[in-house]
Amino acid sequence: MLTREFSPQHRELASEVVRFTRRSAKRYKRSRTSWGDLFVDAYSWALGIGVSLTVAASFVLALRNEIAQRASTANSIIRAQWLVLPEAVLWTSVTFAVLLVIGNLARKLGPMTVNGAESTWWLTLPVDRRPMVLPPFARKVALTAAGSGVIYLPFSMVTAVDRAPMEHVFASLTFGAAGAIAVAMAGIQQLALLGPRLGKAIATAALLTCSVLPAMPSSPWPAALVGVAAVALFAVVAPRAGHVKGDELVRGGAVAGHAGASLFMMDSNEVLRALGGNRRRVDGGRAASFYAQPARGPLWALIRADVVAFLRLNPPLTPPILWLAACNAILLVEGGLPEFAQLAVIVIAGCATASGLGSVARKTALVPELDALLPLHPALVRTSRTLMPCLAMAAWMAVLSGLLVLLGAANPWLIGVGALAGVGMGAGTLRAATRTPPDWTAPPVETPFGPVPRAQLGSLMRGLDVTVLAMVPLLLALYLGYVPASLVIIQAVLSAGIFLVVVLTRPKRI
């Protein structure tokens, strides 16, 4: 058996292997591209990014002025607030949630990884792995810190209109360093320096502390403190980067490669499969009693199998609960946010929750030939696939609508409208899972933002379109502040129509 040596000679050998691989890859890429293609690509990207940044800056400034001039509750879908949430608590919670997302993504994607070719020819060498995995890890930390700081700047400008320009800069630097800490903590968990539960607890506590510091930008000390902590954590991880297990490096590289290729190909289903494929917890206890019941015909057997699969895949309860909390917190914030912002958060929460409940449909959509072998009409098969997402989304929307009724957003009929809307939103999960791959033979459309792949965007929006459409009557009721009787009928007809269209439409295959 080969053993790795950590002497300076072997470390230099590993560095030479890495440099040789990088030079060969760059030489190969240069041989397949021309200066003209590079100039056109650079011009298109620069033009698109410039226009997008201009539009984004205009939107941020307009939203900033809207929030600065808002009345206490004049522009809220809740006419009389009986509970007020301080703004600082809400924005700190949002900052903490974003840091948790960064940390979880970093843990799923590595953060120290090797791709398929590197795992074949690097990991088999009996040399120190640190020169192989440390430079990419350092780049990830630096890019995460820079990206987090840039993204937090407009967030700070919108949520804290009374800050001076330098205070916004200090807050952005603090959040950027906090993003680097999230990636470094993911590296510590990957190295198994702490136990799984202890590592998660310490990482959560550290990120919670970091989420409070951007709210105190009056001096540069919070930014300096978080920056020193980020450097210290990186100094802990860097010397031990070569001790990451080979299977962990390969796992992270496979997930990162799968997710990156899916993003490049604009396939959101594959992105979700890549990020959710490493979940190992499967619970059979939830479905044991239901599975033990005798089947009464092929349709009932298929429905039972889909229900059991839905329960065994163990859909996490934390994200739907957090989205419920976000929808209510955005309504209770002190001073009141603009009405369109509150409705937008509800739409985003509904779409995100519906997407998380479509794991069974996405897995079965990988091999549609198996559904064709069932002794059932294809519409009945798709009905069985849609049953559990529709019931789950109807329950989630009923809970959300009930909370909104308690807050005074509308009369109790809103609960029925929400439950009916959940049926249409659940049907949208099947439509999204069975979307066709993007057609890359269709040429892009030239716009002021640069070339836009219209056909590919149309494929990407499949499923999301009916999910948003099913929420329109609910959003209208929230905007009006009451639920007319006709709106209940419209919601029922719309949800039933969406459900029938989804189950009766045969998915197209390229």
TrEMBL record:
UniProtKB keywords: Membrane, Transmembrane, Transmembrane helix
InterPro entries cross-referenced by the UniProt entry: DUF6297
Membrane-traversing stretches: 42-63, 84-106, 141-161, 168-188, 221-238, 386-407, 413-433, 463-482, 488-505
Keyword Transcription: no
UniProt superkingdom: Bacteria
Key word Amino-acid biosynthesis present: no
Protein name per its UniProtKB record: Integral membrane protein
